[in-house]
Every structure is written in structure tokens, then in C-alpha cells.
Design a protein that fits this description.
It is a single chain. The protein is built from eight helices and six strands. The chain is α/β, with parallel strands linked by helices. Strands 3-2-1-4-5-6 form a six-stranded mixed beta sheet. Helix 6 links the parallel strand 2 and strand 3. Helix 2 packs antiparallel against helix 3 and helix 4 crosses helix 6. The longest helix is centred in the first third of the chain and has 12 residues. The protein is globular and about 45 Å long.
Length: about 190
């Protein structure tokens, strides 16, 4: 059986869900700004390649410690942002679809359940501390996680907004680049 595989942010969801969730939480609980100095320092470290993407994101997710109810904020976030799910995905959804994302699993799991997406592979981030269990699910790590969790899976079609997903595009029969409303064949 061939599966269709999708990135989530800027592919199924029209924007970056992590950034949107952060901004949503910031409006609800401005006290998370207490982490801004740490985030700024780590942003520069990441920008100048002095830390890994996973290390940077762990520092970013420290804002979760300030939330009164992570699950409550996630539920409220999706109530308000469900309308940002791309129409092309809703029209073509299949039960066997696989979503692979660098966004945290705790953030995507509720909307994936609502959309009847049973196969979700995402970054494992502790929703209370922001600590990662494993690497950020990005680039080649997506292929490693797919092979580990669904050993013999075959990808019929793959969709992503980012060329960083080339490792997944290379193992798909057909791959497409999503550019807002345009879906074009993968370059190369």
C-alpha cells in the first residue's frame, strides 16, 4: 500500500503552527515574555551555528513553563485556527495519510485527531518543560523517524513547502512543492 505523506506547517496548515501558537499564548499570558532574553541569545547562537536546531528549539519552548494549562491553550488554539487547514488537504484526505513535522507532537496531535489523521510523526517535546526526547524531526531526521516507526512504508505522493524535506521527496514516487495555493512538481 502506498501512503501519501505531508509536511504540516505551510503545507496542510497555511502558516507555521508553532509560531502561531507562541503568539496566541503570548496574547493570553504575556508573562511568557520573561523568556525573551534567553530566546534572543539562543537565536543568535543558532543563527551563527553555535548550537543545533534541537538545542535552539528547546530554549524556545521554555515558554511552555509559564502556561496555566498547556492542553487548554492547545485546544483553544485549534478552535480558533482550524480554518487555516488547506482546502486541498481536506478535499484529498485519505485514511492512510502520514503527517511528518518538526512541530511538537503535543501541538499537532489534537488537530490530527480531529482531521482523522491516524499517522503522525512529529518532534517529541515535553509539553511542560519544552525538553526534547530525541532530535528535532526535520530534514533527514524525518526519514529516520519514518523508517523507525513504519518500517516498510512506501510513499506514493509527498507534499511539503520546504526544500529541507528533499530526503523525503527523494524516496517518494511523486513529490510536490506547496506554495500557498499552488502545488507544483518537486524541483530537480
Amino acid at each position: 500500500m502506498k501512503h501519501n505523506v505531508y509536511d504540516f506547517d505551510k503545507t496542510i496548515y497555511k502558516r507555521d503552527s508553532t509560531v502561531d501558537f507562541y503568539l496566541f499564548c503570548l496574547k493570553k499570558q504575556p508573562k511568557i515574555l520573561a523568556e525573551a532574553p534567553v530566546l534572543l541569545i539562543w537565536s543568535f547562537l543558532y543563527l551563527f551555528r553555535h548550537c543545533s536546531k534541537t538545542e535552539f528549539k528547546e530554549k524556545f519552548y521554555r515558554f511552555l513553563r509559564y502556561l496555566d494549562s498547556v492542553d487548554g491553550r492547545v485546544a483553544e488554539f485549534w478552535e480558533r485556527n482550524r480554518g487555516k487547514i488547506a482546502a486541498f488537504y481536506l478535499e484529498g484526505h485519505q485514511e492512510s495519510d502520514i503527517v511528518i513535522s518538526a512541530s511538537p507532537e503535543f501541538l499537532l496531535r489534537p488537530i490530527c485527531q480531529e482531521l482523522d489523521i491516524k499517522n503522525l510523526i512529529a518532534s517529541r517535546v515535553d509539553k511542560y518543560t519544552g525538553t526534547y526526547s530525541g532530535e528535532n524531526c526535520w530534514g533527514e531526521e524525518k526519514v529516520k523517524r519514518l523508517r523507525k516507526e513504519m518500517q516498510d512504508v512506501s510513499i506514493g505522493e509527498f507534499y511539503s513547502d520546504s526544500l529541507s524535506d528533499a530526503p523525503l521527496a527523494q524516496i517518494a514516487e511523486r513529490a510536490y512543492l506547496v506554495r500557498k495555493k499552488d502545488i507544483v512538481p518537486w524541483p530537480g
